[in-house]
Predict the structure.
Amino acid sequence: MMTSPSFDFDSVIDRRHGDSLKWNKYAGRDVLPLWVADMDFAAPPAVLAALEKRLAQGCLGYAVPWPALVDSVLAHLQRQYAWRVEREWLVWLPGLVTGINVACRAVDGAVLTATPVYPPFLSAPRLSGRQLLSVPLRLANGGWGWDFAALEAAITPETRLLLLCHPHNPVGRAWRDDELAELSAFCQRHDLLICSDEIHCDLILDEGRQHRPLATIDGEMARRCITLMAPSKTYNIPGLGCSFAVIADEALRSRFTGVMRGIVPDVNVFGLTAAQAAYGESDDWHAALIGVLRGNRDRVEAAVAAMPGLAMSHVEATYLAWIDARGIKVADPVAFFEAAGVGLSRGDDFGLPGWVRLNFGCPRATLDAALERMAKALALHGGQV
Ligand SMILES: Cc1ncc(COP(=O)(O)O)c(C=O)c1O
């Protein structure tokens, strides 16, 4: 009888004395870092084996994406999303944030997005010399959604690009088809291009839900879309710097690659090697990861519901919880939780002060210890009021 392989998502890897951005922030302090979006799990065994094999070859010259790698990406897109992508639509990038900035520079006009949102959405337009227009997402009946009236009110004739985060960091929504269709109609009405950051697309946690690339909503959307994807979040290889854009429209693709020319370097050989093994050989690991993240998500939701002064809505996708901390009535909730030994991301950076983001992509022991520290600090805090 075949047994399914088991993977280790429980061991706590000591990342404290090395190169980890996440852990080095609190070097020498007893703070559990649940901030930047990388996970504390080892990458899939197939990815590690492929990297070891590649390293053993010894020669680390310039790399070009090879046919079997491209095949593994295209097969993944076809298998997961029934999305038929042509080889030439792929543009390899050393980082997805690079892609967001290149997209802003590829348009001649203002850029529209909705907050709260991953901070580079707010900085990229400014860094690119483009005006940023932003509207708040709407929180209604405990769930986040688009405020189409606010989008209509904010848009100007100079607006050329919508930046979409799908699934959304930090609010954890996997946008439904009807929401995507409404966004698509809005973009067509106003003749906008869309840069759809789908880096979290393989991290849908709700059972029965599937990611739907925005570009597959209709033919017109496919023509207007720059879709950004990467294996980095799902397979926990963000340090390898490998991502790609899918741009079906030839003219748009050549504008995009024109901006990159001479500035954006090629993807390194380890990033490409890891991508092939991630997309081509790591489905079992991925399925196991989703089970672990679902369990962690449920623990966070239950713990936060029991913590006085905190509130959050359901996380459909990503390993990030977006928590309203205004109820604890402290000037700086991040400093409050750091003092309690937990490092969270600051809501201000996402455009929404008073909120914090918690990364639950870590072994259960780390998560439980962090949630306990938070609960204890809030209990003490409550006692002092
Ligand atoms: C929505 C989103 N886009 C992009 C990135 C980062 O991409 P990269 O490291 O490839 O620049 C992140 C990382 O957290 C993210 O959440």
Notes: The CA atoms of residues 297 and 358 lie 10 Å apart.
